[in-house]
Amino acid sequence: MSFSSKVKNELCRLENLDVCCLMAELAAVLCLNGAAAPVPGNGYNIRITTENAAFIRRVYSILKKHCDISAEVVIRKSRKLKKHVSYMLFITPALGSDRLLARTGTKVRAEEGKPAELVISNRRILERACCKKAFLRGAFLAGGSISNPEKTYHLELTARTLEQAQEHKRLLNHFGLNGKILERKGSYVTYLKEGENIVDFLNVIGAYYALMVL
Question: With a threshold of 0.85, does the pTM exceed it?
Answer without folding.
Answer: yes
